[in-house]
Amino acid sequence: MPELAEVEVVRNVLNNSLKGLVITGIECRYKPIIEDDFAYFTSKVLNKRIVEIKRYAKYLIFILEDGAFISHLRMEGKYFYVLENEEISKHVHVIFHLSNGYKLLYADVRKFGRIVYKPTEDIYNTLPLSNIGVEANNPEYNRTELFKAITNKRLPIKTVLLDQSIISGLGNIYADEVLFACGISPFTEAKCITLEQIDLIMNNSLKILNKAIENKGTTIRSYTSSLGVAGNYQNFLCVHTKTICPRCNTALSKSKINGRTSYYCPNCQK
Ligand SMILES: [Zn+2]
Q: Considering the entire predicted model, what is its pTM?
């Protein structure tokens, strides 16, 4: 699944390619991907210029000259920017024809991704973005609020870090890496987390996500970024998918926590 760092890499490439182009045609081959009524979506997006591509947590925001559409890649969503005459695969569900002879393809093997149009004033204050917690790499988080939200939960801290309404942008890979960097066991009950540990979690999230973005994300398992970008952050992972602790050489443990495979060092993480 693409996480914040991978979505940021996609955003950056899309922004460089699409800025200033006009959407001259839209085709949708699998209706549920576009949440709006297709005629409504088309009336809002067709013939509009793409001003820029932004990102908020794991969402891409295509800012148009009037309004925006928000795209969530979910498990397998990918964008491809290709010449108009390029053949397309059966996994391409949405095609945006562009004013420069190229087209933007949205492909999604699992079909879980979603695209929705928003008027400018509703982008951040309606769902899905209104329900998104502070970004994990935002250095200006409100520690008291975050402390309240986290310690209010009687769940393992790993599970709470994956709750996008509390902290957004940490997925399974980076949550494991952040907890390792903090020396916190993923099983620790969230209500036992201290104010100091909140700072530790946020400082390490900032460091790890920014380093992952610099290295164009992580390319493991099924998800590889589209647009010819392969990430290198897998070379910097300390625990996720690993077997030996890089700090103390103990064998790492692997457990399911709320259904998500979690890697941790039983010696370094308490
Ligand atoms: Zn260790």
A: 0.84
Active site residue 31: no
260 has catalytic annotation: yes
Q: Looking at residue 41, what DSSP letter applies?
A: H
> Which is the catalytic residue, given 3, 6, 8, 177?
3
Using DSSP's 3-state secondary structure scheme, residue 235 falls into: helix
| 3 is known as an active-site residue | yes
2 part of the active site: yes
* Structural tokens at position 106: 């949205």
Which of 11, 55, 58, 118 is an active site residue? 58
Question: Which structural domains are found in the chain, ordered by start?
Answer: 4-129 (3.20.190.10), 134-264 (1.10.8.50)
CA of 260 to the centre of ligand 1 (A): 21
Q: What share of the chain is helix, strand, coil (3-state, %, to 5)?
A: 30, 25, 45
Local confidence pLDDT in tens for the 270 residues of the chain: 677 888 888 898 899 999 999 999 999 999 999 999 999 999 999 999 999 999 998 899 999 999 999 999 988 899 999 999 999 999 999 999 999 999 999 999 999 999 999 999 999 999 999 999 999 999 999 999 999 999 999 999 999 999 999 999 888 999 999 999 999 999 999 999 999 999 999 999 999 999 988 887 766 543 444 565 667 777 889 999 999 999 999 999 999 999 999 999 999 999
Peptide bond into 246 cis (omega under 30): no
Query: Rounded to the nearest whole angstrom, what is the distance from the C-alpha of residue 183 to the centroid of ligand 1?
Result: 9
